[in-house]
Design goal:
14% strand, two-stranded antiparallel ribbon, 10 helices, eight-stranded parallel barrel, alpha/beta, single chain
Length: 360
C-alpha cells in the first residue's frame, strides 16, 4: 500500500504563481443591477434581431462601433452620436453598438478592457469586469442594444443579460468549448468563417450550437458546475474573408449560401466589412457596404446584417507606456472608420436599399 504524499508542490500547480479570488457573477449583478430601461433595451434588441433572422422584420441589423473599447469616455461620446444616427435610419436599418472587451491574441498583446483595464499589464480583472458591466448598463439605458465577442467562457455569466447579440471569432469558431458555450447563450450568435476563409468550421459550429450540451462552466454563485444547455436556435454565419482574400461579393455569398444549405443550417448571412474583407484597411469598408447594397437591390435574400468597425477618429494607434500620449477617440487595436465617413456610409446604405428592403 502506497503512503499518500504529504507535499506535492513539486508536481501540482508548478507554473501557477497565485490564485486571486474573483467577484462572483451574482455579486457583480447585485452591485450593478439590471435597470428597467436596460432590460427593455436588451429585450427589444434581441427580439428585433430574432425577427430579422426569422424574416419577420425586413430591415438589416448592423453591429457597429470601435474594434475594442479602451476609453469609457470615448465610448459614451460615440454611443451618444450613434443613438442619434440610429433614429435617422431606423426605418431601414436596426443599429446595435459593438462593445468588445476581450481581444483574442495570436501571440501576445493587450487583451482588452476586462483583462487589463489600466493598459499597463496590471491585469486588474476585478476592475475590468466592473467597468465593462457599468458601461453596458449605461449604453443600454441610452436605448442602444449592445453586441460583444464571447471569448472567455466565464465572462457571459457576468454580463450576458446586457447583450443583444454575440460573436464567436474566427480563431474560436472551431473550438468545442465556444460551441458549447454558445449553445447556452441567451442571445443570437454569429459565427465567423475560419481564418482561411473556408465555411466548414462555421457550418459545423452552427450545427453543434443548435443542440443542447453538457459542459463545465461557472454558475451565478461562482461555483464550477455542469451546465446543461437547451441549444441556441439563432446561430448564423458572419463572412469576414480569409487568407485567400475577401468573401463578401455576389459569387462568394452564393457559395456560402450553398454551403449553408448543404449543412442544413440557417441561410442567413452577415457581412463583416473589416478584417480580410477590406484587407484591414478601414477606409475600404464603405466599398464593401456599397457592394452589399447593390446585392440587395439586385435581389439578394440572404444578407441580413453588417458588422462595421468605426470610431470617433479614423485609423488606429499603438498603445504606449504613457497613456497621456494616446489620441482621444482613436482605436488602439484594428483601424476604424472615422465618424463622418460612418455617417455618410450608413445614410448612403439606407438610401440605396430603402425602396427594396420591405419586399425581400
Amino acid at each position: 500500500m502506497m503512503t499518500p504524499a504529504t507535499n506535492n508542490a513539486d508536481i501540482d500547480d508548478v507554473n501557477i504563481e497565485e490564485f486571486i479570488p474573483l467577484v462572483t457573477p451574482a455579486e457583480l449583478k447585485t452591485e450593478l443591477p439590471l435597470s428597467e430601461a436596460a432590460y427593455n433595451t436588451v429585450l427589444h434588441g434581441r427580439t428585433t434581431i430574432q425577427n430579422i433572422l426569422d424574416g419577420k422584420d425586413k430591415r438589416l441589423f448592423i453591429v457597429i462601433g470601435p474594434c475594442s473599447i479602451h476609453d469609457v469616455a470615448a465610448a459614451h461620446e460615440y454611443a451618444d452620436r450613434l443613438a442619434t444616427l440610429a433614429k435617422e435610419i431606423d426605418d431601414t436599418i436596426f443599429v446595435v453598438m459593438r462593445v468588445y472587451f476581450e481581444k483574442p491574441r495570436t501571440t501576445v498583446g493587450w487583451k482588452g478592457l476586462i483583462n487589463d483595464p489600466d493598459m499597463n499589464d496590471s491585469f486588474d480583472i476585478q476592475k475590468g469586469l466592473r467597468m465593462a458591466r457599468k458601461l453596458l448598463l449605461d449604453l443600454n439605458e441610452k436605448g442602444l442594444p449592445c453586441a460583444t465577442e464571447a471569448l472567455d467562457p466565464n465572462t457571459p455569466q457576468y454580463m450576458q443579460d446586457l447583450i443583444s447579440w454575440s460573436a464567436i471569432g474566427a480563431r474560436t469558431t472551431e473550438s468545442q468549448t465556444h460551441r458549447e458555450m454558445s449553445s447556452g447563450l441567451s442571445c443570437p450568435v454569429g459565427f465567423k468563417n475560419g481564418t482561411d476563409g473556408g465555411m466548414t468550421v462555421a457550418v459545423n459550429a452552427m450545427q453543434a450550437v443548435k443542440a443542447g450540451h453538457s459542459f463545465l462552466g461557472l454558475s451565478a454563485d461562482g461555483k464550477v458546475s455542469i451546465i446543461k444547455s437547451k441549444g441556441n436556435p439563432y446561430a448564423h454565419v458572419v463572412l469576414r474573408g480569409g487568407s485567400d482574400g475577401p468573401n463578401y461579393d455576389e459569387t462568394a455569398v452564393a457559395q456560402a449560401e450553398n454551403e449553408l444549405a448543404k449543412g442544413k443550417t440557417s441561410g442567413k448571412i452577415m457581412i463583416d466589412t473589416s478584417h480580410a474583407n477590406s484587407g484591414k484597411d478601414p477606409y475600404l469598408q464603405p466599398m464593401v457596404i456599397k457592394n452589399v447594397a447593390e446585392q440587395i437591390r439586385n435581389g439578394n435574400q440572404s444578407i441580413i446584417g453588417l458588422m462595421i468597425e468605426s470610431h470617433l477618429k479614423g485609423g488606429n494607434q499603438s498603445l504606449t507606456s504613457n497613456l497621456d500620449d494616446l489620441e482621444y477617440g482613436k482605436s488602439i487595436t484594428d483601424g476604424c472608420l472615422d465618424w463622418e465617413s460612418t455617417v455618410a456610409a450608413l445614410h448612403n446604405l439606407r438610401d440605396e436599399i430603402k425602396d427594396v428592403i420591405a419586399n425581400r
